[in-house]
Design a protein that fits this description.
By secondary structure, the protein is mainly alpha-helical. It is built from five helices and no strands. It is rod-shaped, with a radius of gyration of 23 Å.
């Protein structure tokens, strides 16, 4: 009888430790999602700043400058609900401006265009990292053990944003 009780207690301790381990793993994944989003958000803010610099360049005509400025400010100031639409708008505006090498205003500094290209590449990497983190967390949370024991607690389900598919 005592051996059975000790065995049951031991198994309960092992099960408790395992559930605690799984909850910690999920928490680490949620942290990874949050940090990848923070990094991606910083890159997007820098891209908007570069777009504003291009818009304020003397060689850009007034209409293009106005459209680019509006898109950049909208992307910088958008709340989380409006963020996807604002980033898509900025991406499309930059694509229109840079679509054809011949149509790029000649007075735009090469440094700004190089910075925009470098930022675009960094954003692509940031999106990949964020997407993978979200996918991992969603996959782990979809398992029955996590649902049954509510190991995610009250953390919201990580999500991707629609602009991640449409970035410059």
């Amino acid at each position: 009888m005592i051996k059975t009780a000790i065995a049951v207690i031991f198994l309960l301790l092992i099960a408790g430790w395992y559930l605690s381990f799984l909850a910690s793993r999920l928490d680490a994944l949620h942290h990874r999602v949050e940090t990848s989003w923070a990094h991606l958000d910083a890159l997007l803010q820098k891209r908007a700043a570069i777009a504003l610099e291009i818009a304020n360049s003397k060689s850009v005509d007034a209409a293009t400058s106005m459209v680019l400025t509006a898109a950049a400010y909208q992307a910088r100031e958008a709340n989380i609900v409006e963020r996807s639409d604002a980033e898509i708008s900025l991406s499309q505006t930059l694509k229109l401006l840079l679509a054809d090498e011949a149509s790029v205003p000649s007075g735009i500094e090469v440094d700004l265009l190089a910075a925009l290209q470098a930022m675009t590449e960094k954003i692509a990497v940031g999106i990949t990292i964020h997407t993978e983190a979200v996918r991992s967390a969603q996959h782990l949370r979809s398992k029955n053990l996590f649902k049954l024991f509510r190991l995610a607690g009250h953390a919201p389900l990580p999500m991707r944003y629609s602009f991640e598919d449409d970035i410059l």
